Request: fold
Amino acid sequence: MTLLALETSCDETSVAVIREGAVLANVVSSQVALHAEYGGVVPELAAREHLRNLIPVARAALDAAGVQPGQLDAVAATQGPGLPNALMVGFKAGQAVAYALGKPFVGIHHHEAHLYSPWIQTAAPAPRAGQGTEASPVAVAFANFADFQPNISLIVSGGHTMIVLVESELKHRVLGGTLDDAAGECFDKTGKLMGLAYPAGPDIDRLAEQGNPAAYDFPRPLLQDASDDFSFSGLKTAVRYFVRDHPELLEDARNVCDLCASVQAAIVDVLVTKTIRAARRNGVRCVTASGGVTCNRALRRELARACAREGFALHLADRALCTDNAAMIGILAERKLMRPGPPAPLDGEIQPGWILA
Ligand code: KG4
Ligand code: ZN
Reply:
């Protein structure tokens, strides 16, 4: 089966070509530079950019894969959650292609795709999701599911933070999520308070490497709470008041590095502690993590350290597959299409508020 996958839920236009568990191409065109000017994603601009970029990105993906549209056996697109007008571009284009080719179409839950992205093992240098359009003619093999189940999965992105129990392939249950801001949002908003450009996560990661994580003691919300829920708005408020009361700190680059390291340590501490606790409580010995924040070096390091201490296996999504990409959409779609059942109707609608169960 050769499958075309489209992802346009937020600010990356991405198209991938998948064949039997291998990613033949995964092209990502990021709009980050466009939205940075506004300090966050502007939904209307995002949708227009997707309209402008989708065909060139699809053409680049098909060219990189060496596949003609007529050779496609199925089409998949992100159905939700996401920005409505942005979702609509990829979802409706996908349905139109499937209709024109007379092939099955499958709508994919964006977080479910993140959830299974650590199961994709890169066989070669992975595609880089960065600014501009990048073709990636590398093959990515789908991992052996048996190595992964059951597991506790942390999904941490700009829009969501959740802990999921994965019992087996495509059988999962969300145990907890954020009550307010997502972890990525916390990185981005606290970074903004420190004068960093949107999205601040990657800059905080970089600056924190030269800072002292114990320099400032920021709150670790819900750390002691027995639930699998998160809350990051209190941390953001603590940083806001701290910066208001100590504006002089932002004038010294060393202090900014210390601030970044301290804020990052608070976020990472909560994420790692609660993930490990959930794994222990559910008696599973495997942990996975995915979503944009999983690019964070401290998070990757601390998860590795904690899992080694507990004797848990750890599978982190490849850095290039942490941020939004169509490869994860296509890989999941292929697994779904391999299951028995009637093809999905072509008149399905986007689900901007779709909640992962
Ligand atoms: O998964 P993603 O690309 O988009 C959503 O579905 O939200 O995640 C984007 C988020 C942003 O908040 C960004 O700041 C954060 O991931 N992020 C990072 C890093 N790289 C991206 N946060 C911390 N450290 C990083 N290295
Ligand atoms: Zn995402």
